[in-house]
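To illustrate the input format used throughout this study, we show a single complete record. The first block contains the structure-token representation of the backbone; no residue identities are included at this stage. The design step must infer an amino acid for every position from geometry alone.
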């Protein structure tokens, strides 16, 4: 007997584990955890602004770093606890979005200077802008680009126990970054609305991968903080599976 579409949809729904909702960012990381990531990105932007020629050459990388800064700034506003510049985190976000969009060297220098003044606490407090949807802060492709870079560090530092021990601080930063980025990525499931091949319950499946992405990133972070090499390695290994599965279904052909 042929099953109806509705029955098939129902059966494949049962085949999926129950979807755990993605927790709020404040339940995953604190603003203090994100602060060092922000400072690293600012240092990289600074390097690419050494002179006009460097800036022109670094165009794509610079744009990406500025979007990453915008994402982390919004994350500071939403994370647990507060740091010196939390009240102005969304002002930093908006300056960083402008920075990502400018092709003008002098304007870029001016914007980065203003960002540095806020983050170092030397800028007067201005009006606090409102929350933005994540996709208004930066497109998903920019989130994924950073996911890919951070993933390389994560994999490198769990390859051997002695790397894990020696580079615990870097691994901690990478695991915080991955948790934040996975959280952000989980808000945009538009790729599931036009899957490249027919997929049953596409949106639900996509959200499931997103939830696993967040969960495994957080598990990796917890393992790093506990000092458990085996758990960290296991979480990072499982994470690779989630990247691969989501991509296989929704974005086949991307190399990482
Ligand atoms: C829930 C689904 C999902 C998961 C999980 C996921 N991705 Fe993606 N990824 C996407 C989608 C969708 C895009 C396409 C974004 C776009 O172009 O708008 C993408 C794009 C990318 C890109 C291409 C970026 C570019 O420059 O065009 C890379 C690289 C990437 N992902 C790496 C990863 C890695 C590494 C992981 C795991 C650590 C991962 N992704 C996890 C859905 C996912």
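Output of the design step:
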């Amino acid at each position: 007997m042929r099953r109806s579409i509705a029955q098939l949809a129902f059966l494949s729904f049962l085949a999926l584990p129950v979807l755990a909702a993605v927790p709020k960012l404040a339940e995953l990381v604190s603003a203090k955890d994100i602060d060092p990531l922000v400072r690293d990105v600012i240092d990289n932007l600074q390097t690419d602004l050494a002179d006009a020629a460097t800036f022109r050459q670094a165009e794509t990388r610079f744009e990406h770093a500025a979007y990453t800064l915008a994402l982390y700034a919004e994350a500071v506003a939403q994370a647990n606890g507060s740091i010196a510049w939390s009240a102005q985190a969304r002002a930093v976000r908006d300056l960083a979005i402008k920075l990502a969009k400018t092709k003008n060297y002098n304007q870029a220098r001016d914007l980065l200077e203003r960002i540095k003044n806020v983050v170092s606490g030397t800028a007067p407090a201005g009006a606090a802008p409102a929350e933005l949807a994540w996709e208004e802060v930066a497109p998903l492709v920019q989130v994924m680009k950073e996911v890919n870079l951070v993933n390389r560090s994560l994999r490198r530092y769990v390859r051997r126990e002695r790397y894990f021990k020696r580079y615990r601080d870097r691994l901690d930063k990478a695991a915080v970054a991955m948790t934040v980025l996975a959280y952000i990525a989980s808000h945009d499931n538009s790729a599931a609305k036009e899957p490249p091949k027919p997929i049953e319950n596409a949106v639900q499946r996509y959200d499931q991968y997103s939830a696993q992405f967040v969960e495994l990133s957080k598990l990796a972070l917890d393992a790093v903080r506990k000092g458990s090499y085996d758990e960290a390695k296991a979480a990072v290994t499982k994470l690779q599976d989630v990247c691969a599965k989501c991509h296989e279904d929704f974005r086949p052909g991307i190399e990482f």
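Structural context for interpreting the output: Residues 1-15 have pLDDT under 50 and may be disordered. The pocket of heme C is lined by residues 140-141, 144-145, 147-148, 151, 191, 206, 209-210, 213, 239, 242-243, 246-247, 250-251, 254, 256 (CB under 6 Å).
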